[in-house]
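FORM 7B: Structural annotation worksheet

SECTION A. Query
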Amino acid sequence: MYEDFYKQLEQLGIVPVVVLEKVEDAVPMADALAAAGMNSAEVTFRTSCAAASIKAMHEAHPEMAVGAGTVLSVEQVDEAVAAGASFIVSPGFDEDVVRHCIDLKLPVLPGTVTPTEVTAARKLGLQVTKFFPAAQYGGLATVKALCAPFVGHRFMPTGGVNLGNVEEYLESPSIIACGGTWMVKPKLFADGDFSKVTETAKEAMDVVRKVRG
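SECTION B. Predicted structure
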């Protein structure tokens, strides 16, 4: 299940976690990321314009993998799907959300940070899950410890991932990709200029290419 999506995720290497307060920023953000070769975005449902932003980004860049993040309910899954989201990310493991995504054949990355949560995800057929908040839960050391008994399971760590440690994360076979906010922080484009987003995203993609070719 989700093999094609997992391959795509590994090729992407880094998924920017985007928080947008204005839908008008959606297309410029997508343009800036695409210019850096970062062809994905996880648009979080932390703001009221999330669904509209996903729709705008998807329509402007149909080749880009635009997903919904911070998805906490089945209703939000449906809202994200209607907007054109191609994958769902949750901060924790909600069985109703996961089962609904599976029924829709929609890739889902729920958060799992304990053996019990990983077990629950694997029982539903998931081979890759989110690891959040990564820094607070022990980072790469915890990921490696979890992957020892759960052979073949992989994680997308998010939270505390930055340019200084993303290379170490990506070098681990336990990591399929990393979620990051440092290249899309609101202060980088607060003045309406998205060039700093492109600049920092390019630095991140240089690391991906260095590690994964």
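SECTION C. Observations
The radius of gyration is 16 Å. Residues 168 and 187 are 26 Å apart (CA to CA).

SECTION D. Sign-off
Analyst initials: ____
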